[in-house]
UniProtKB/TrEMBL annotation:
Domain Luciferase-like: 8-304
Species, as recorded: Roseomonas indoligenes
Protein name per the record: LLM class flavin-dependent oxidoreductase
InterPro entries with a match to the protein in the record: Bact_Lucif_Oxidored, Luciferase-like_dom, Luciferase-like_sf
Lineage: superkingdom: Bacteria
Gene Ontology MF terms in the entry: monooxygenase activity; oxidoreductase activity, acting on paired donors, with incorporation or reduction of molecular oxygen
GO cellular component, as recorded: cytosol
Keyword Oxidoreductase: yes
Length: 351
């Protein structure tokens, strides 16, 4: 099982600058490498404080220069917002720059305001992604692209930097035919468990399995990648502040699915929603707090969901950068070794 650090690069407070957020991200990734993480992911979002990173491939390029071992990747390239001919060339270039350390996350996107601002019909996003995926796979494996589709037409063209294979593939999306295609290609399928206990995430796993079965694929074809929010601290006040930050983040994530997210300029408002978890519930059930408790909850995830990849997000709290780095170090020294022991055990799925 691989364990990666996820970097959303949110502006959690109005007084944070993009330069500070990006600088802290670089520090976190370098620390994660020294702690023994396997990889690091970088998000793509546009036009809100939810993320100051519109280009995860640029982040991969920068971090490839200051790391030596970590696998690096976009989680995800929102492919309908990009011309795939440019993506295929940049991915090939990044494989060369990084020494073949790239992971490739692709997704359809889910935020209406991003599609509207780019002038791209959101209802076409699955079909656009499929054509873009064709072009990327063709260019990375053959070194040439020639394509005639509804959304893209590319005259025969060589790709100068191509690795001869698609990097390890991860898909974020819910369309069954996309899930089936990724599984047939040996790719991993992302679900966002977020703050949920493992039992509450089982329906998300079952939805993936149902899609694979519908496509004639065995359940063994599922390689499950889980997005999880975690924070390690022994300080009760800091733990509560982390829970408050988690709730703000959950609210923001949900509101981004609205036609027009509520924001002041680019800064997202924290809008309560029906059925949201309480701070006390998060303190009891979310993996925030002492290392032993975080390890216990992640062990529960492992035995219930059987992930092959964890993408762990620790940047939601709004705490100062030194405290976030301290949490990451505590995770790496106290929790990560326990997870490594779990990954050596036989997989045990819930019935």
């Amino acid at each position: 099982m691989d364990i990666a650090l996820f970097n959303l690069m949110s502006q959690n407070r109005p007084d944070e600058t993009p330069a500070e957020i990006l600088g802290t991200t670089v520090a976190k990734v370098r620390l994660a490498e020294s702690l023994g993480f396997d990889g690091a992911w970088f998000a793509e979002h546009h036009f809100t404080s939810h993320s100051v990173c519109p280009s995860p491939l640029m982040m991969v390029s920068h971090l490839a220069a200051v790391t030596t071992r970590l696998r690096l990747g976009p989680a995800v390239v929102v492919l309908p917002l990009h011309h795939p001919l440019r993506v295929v060339q940049e991915v090939g270039m990044l494989q060369a720059l990084s020494g073949n350390r790239l992971m490739l996350g692709l997704g359809t996107g889910h935020q209406p305001h991003e599609f509207r601002t780019y002038g791209i019909p959101m209802e076409e996003r699955t079909a656009i992604l499929e054509e873009g995926w064709d072009i990327i796979a063709q260019g990375l494996t053959t070194g040439r692209v020639g394509y005639a589709g509804k959304h893209f037409t590319v005259p025969d063209a060589p790709v100068a930097a191509f690795p001869g294979a698609v990097p390890p593939l991860f898909l974020a999306g819910g369309e069954p035919r996309l899930l089936q295609r990724a599984a047939r290609a040996g790719g991993s399928l992302f679900i966002s468990q977020g703050h949920r206990r493992a039992a509450a995430a089982l329906p998300l796993r079952e939805k993936l399995l149902a899609a694979l079965r519908a496509g004639g694929l065995p359940e063994s074809a599922l390689k499950l990648a889980i997005q999880r929010y975690v924070f390690v601290t022994d300080d009760p006040a800091e733990r509560r502040q982390a829970a408050e930050g988690m709730l703000r983040f959950i609210r923001t994530t949900l509101s981004l699915r609205e036609e027009e997210p509520q924001r002041d300029g680019a800064f997202m408002r924290s809008i309560p929603f029906a059925g949201e978890p309480s701070i006390d519930w998060l303190l009891e059930n979310a993996p925030i707090g002492p290392a032993a408790r975080v390890a216990e909850l992640l062990a529960e995830d492992f035995h219930t969901l059987s992930p092959s990849h964890w993408s762990l997000y620790m940047g939601f709290t709004g705490l100062p950068a030194p405290r976030v780095l301290a949490s990451l170090e505590a995770f790496g020294t106290k929790v990560l070794p326990a997870l490594r022991r779990l990954s050596a055990e036989p997989a045990r799925l819930a019935s």
